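Need fresh eyes. Consider my entry:
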Amino acid sequence: MNDQIKQSNQTKSHWDIRITLVLAILVFAAPVLAASFSQKQKITSTPRGVGAQFGYAIAIDGNTMVVGARFDSTTASQAGAAFVYVLNAGTWTQQAQLLANDGAASDKFGQSVAISSDTIVIGAYQANAGFNNNGAAYVFVRNGTTWTQQQKLTASDSTADDEFGNAVAIKGDSIVVGSHFADLPGNASAGSAYLYRRTGSVWTETQKLTPAGGVILGDLFGDSLAISGDKLVVGSPGADIPQTAAGAVYVYVEIGGGLYSLQQKLAILDGTNGDNFGGAVAIEGNTLVGGAREDTPVAGKSQAGAAYVFQFDGSIWNLEQKLVASDGAAIDRFGWSVAIGRGVVAIGAREDDTAVGPDAGSAYTFQKVSSAWTEQQKLTPSDPFNGDRFGGSLAFGSGRLAVGASEKNLTSPNGQGAVYFFTSPRLTFPDFDGDKKADVSIFNPVNGLWSVRESSSGARARQFGAAGDLQAPADYDGDGKTDLSVFRRGPIGLWFIQFSSNSNLSGVDLGMTGDLPVPGDFDGDEKSDRCVFRPSTGEWIRINSSNGQTVTLVMGTVGDIPLIGDFDGDGKSDASYWRSSTASFGILLSSTGATSSINFGTSDDIPAPADYDDDGVTDLAVYSPSSGIWSIQMSTVGLQFVQFGLPGDMPTPADYDGDGRADVAIFRSSPGTWFLSRTSGASTSEVFGTAFDEPVPLFFVRQSLPPNNLQFSAANYIVMEDPTAVEIIVTRSGDLNRIVAVNYATSDGTAKQATDYSVAVGTLIFGVGESVKTFRVSITEDAVVEGTETATLTLSNPSGGAIVGSLGVATLTILDDATEQSVNPYDVAGIYVDEHYFDFLNREADPSGHAFWTNEITGCGSDVHCTDVKRINVSAAYFLSIEFQETGYLVYRFYNAALNRPNGLVRYLEFLKDTQSIGRGVVVGVTGWEAKLDANKTAFANEFVERPEFIALYPVTQTPAEFVDALYAHAGIVPTPSERQASIDEFNNFNGARGRVLRRLGENQTLAQREFNRAFVLMQYFGYLRRNPDDAPDNDLSGYNFWLNKLNQFHGNFVNAEMVKAFILSAEYRRRFAN
């Protein structure tokens, strides 16, 4: 083994799925854009020791950083020290200087450092702990703001020059200490790593790890260490694989009780003598990086250095890529240090000769773009100088990067050292493609459909969730991408998550009915934790992703709106709320545990917290729904006011342009338009969504707003038995500055549909400012003495943050005529016409129409034959009318072409609901009817394609071409090339594209001609008999098929086929009006 390794060696420490809801899932691989880092702070120590090499080792956990100064002479010459810093409002401030209580000259305490929450371990690798340079490690714990030494660790079998403490790592109550020069039998400097477990306040050695395989002389096992989750990585840069000192890395997996078992030994196939692969290691999840600082990647560039990325596929680790600097040169020692955080790999080249001089040093960042790791940025300090050795150490924390320059000259004499703090735009939300830009995105709570305008690759739709689910998107796997997630309330609350990193699905129990999802990174591990806010008790209940522990705290009360934000900039989410009754924010800071209540805005405002000034701190902000004014308390520049929005708009602040600052933005429900005021440029707008969709940004606020109360205006609606319609009033109370909806339906009591009233079923949509909506129920005039009868009116399935009030069920009372007619009302021309309007057009007759068609019949005078013919023609005219052909017949074609129904026939009740919807407010001939009809068609088509049944047949995973081809194939229609292309081109504007394609098909003339006779026959049953053709008394389709064959036989001539005549003269039809 060559002596060079011992002379130049340095160690860096870095430290039953219940998926019943998923209808279709798509993971889109989108390019990840660069995380652009910029220097925010230069950090030095107090005191500044001469030649202390402050920054030789760095570790970060949450808002706490520890920095080693191995040559600090506070205690004794080069005894060493470590310094603790805390992050507050984006700035690091020194909290403590840590010294060994038995520190001595040349101990080099601070050679390695690691931190986990309130515990720090520091290596003093040349301490004389019973033997010369056998080394030690010291454990410190924090209580409040005070750090005290808890224990000194030494190896149970320590010997001279082992250098125990050259590397350290910690996770919770487990510590690993490297001893790279430890001798094993017959193998000097083979190296070892020792594991310790804490019980109470006592650390006990539990395991010794040693290198595996043949000759291990000089392997330097334990030269570097890293821990992530249940995996421990140990570097062995002196391992002779495949050549002398090419190096190796060992991966161990935890097996319980703080013990580890070897999972795999990694080597580099292109390794050559002295590459020293494993001299630095880092791991995040299933990604591992190992530095090979002495590698010669290109002839003539000896010791330029390299790094290797490995990926774990669930069973083995595979080499994914070799990384080199784009401008690498000889003796740069790229790979001296490595780190990984949120999918960004950082590599230090501490001896890079930059423009300012030799060994100034640099660091490089890499990100995975598509399937390749790509260099994104070269980092240098704001004040570079030769000999700084910038990049000698690296540490990531919450997307922030600290870079050590341990030989930085601050004042003469030199070598005090410094640490440089870099930040990139904080974790962006919602960012489904990981490009650091927020995506315009919506969630439909009715059917669980997510639609995302990914800023890197365009619009996508994904099905994930079911009716009634609450959205709970967040980055649960720490890959920098927002994961789809919903929370299903019930006696046991269920969380369903699709991880963007691997497409895996997860189901977890947490919460119950009434809870609100508020996911956030409360434990600072760069992964969002599942968390609910319980309004009834003010409890926040979460499961830490870092350790699986359930944590409960109280912050808030009934009526508070829980918020998600980092108000102290420590990289951890703070439990916080908005209390409208006092117009105040309540915040529990994770960094100090202190709570505060801050009055801000007015009680009518909507909270809109976000980081508007790119300092890593969530700013207090409110939006006035009545004036459109934003009030923002920026932590850097103070109170700002912005006018942006109109009454009823929803605030949707997020960083849409990727500059680190949240942009003021709003979503206007009607017609689903986004307006973005970008901080980096001009304002923009785009249509994306519908009135029923919920924007994803600030979802936790909207789900918590006081609900609208929807109910009938009366418990009983009374109407006389006449050929008329009764108006049913539904009222809305509460916040009117949003769009809500509710379904309504009639059901039989003693009054029966068809003979006493016509079914009314549909959805009422309340626009901004609307407090009253109505629907009408038509009444059937009959000549039967039957007394007072009743039907039931019901409201259900409220959406948009509404609830059904106490009057969600009402009674429709139909008073019988005092004296019934002696003739069948059917034989009275005016009543006959009125009933046809009800039965075919779902509305009352307009005066001119009523007069025209009545006169058609009565104009025959006493000519019975003329009257009979006119009654047939008038009746058929309703089916043939433009109004029905463009409403009811279009609904039939949608079902026939796109969905699976027996014999291709829509069913009676679903037909009524949709026909009433598409025809609402349409009266052909009345001014503006064309525009009203077109708007109804568009809304109906958009709603139709979002139904679960439709999506199951045509998954949102389909490409535009696949969707178009599948839809036309299902309909049995072969489009012309131009028709097909026009349909595909609809997706050039993603919003509503599926609906437009379906409408194109539904209005296809080939389809309309093909289905005309079938629909004509079906409408005889729906219109006259008010039932399905296979309902009793038929019980099968033989009657339907008889009339279809006859109509076809006469080539559609309903008069010669005597079809209409037969139905209007049938006993079943006439019995609707008289016995």
The two ends are 109 Å apart (CA to CA). Residues 1008-1074 form one domain. Residues 1-34 have pLDDT under 50 and may be disordered. The chain has six domains: 42-423, 605-703, 708-815, 823-880, 881-1003, 1008-1074.
